[in-house]
Design a protein that fits this description.
The chain has one domain (6-106): HIT family, subunit A (2-Layer Sandwich), CATH 3.30.428. The protein has 115 residues and is α+β, with helices and mostly antiparallel strands. Strand 2 (26-30) and strand 3 form a beta hairpin. The mean pLDDT is 95. A five-stranded antiparallel beta sheet has the order 1-2-3-5-4, covered by helices on one side. The protein is 20% helix and 22% strand.
Length: 115
């Protein structure tokens, strides 16, 4: 049986979250520790533990993740000013929940390299 993550519980409505977008394949909600005025996590509803676990069969879900990020950015009004998409992978990459997700950050000037 697949281990349930915090994100699967949010998707199922078992854990409260400030959901900003939801469809059949993705759920997006505000990060509880935001790093910018707009900080949303976009999560595929199908669990892929981390990006390195994705295979060729996941091309559609991975492409959909980026298209959903663009849609959410437009919805939240950061599409014109700019935003950043981040996918953390593994412990050293800063991934805390073993469920692939994309951080959409915006609403302020984001420097490079990240701090």
């Amino acid at each position: 049986m697949e281990e349930r993550t915090l994100f699967t519980k949010i998707i199922a409505g078992e854990v409260p979250a400030d959901i900003v977008y939801d469809d059949n394949d993705y759920c997006a909600f505000r990060d509880i520790h935001p790093a910018s005025p707009v900080h949303v996590l976009i999560v595929p509803k199908r669990v892929i533990p981390k990006i390195t676990d994705a295979g060729p069969e996941d091309k559609e879900i991975l492409g959909g993740l980026l298209l959903t990020a663009a849609k959410v950015a437009r919805q939240l009004g950061v599409d014109e000013s700019g935003f950043r998409c981040v996918i953390n992978c593994g412990k050293d990459g800063g991934q805390e929940v073993p469920h692939l997700h994309l951080h959409l950050l915006g609403g302020r000037l984001l420097g490079w390299p990240p701090g």
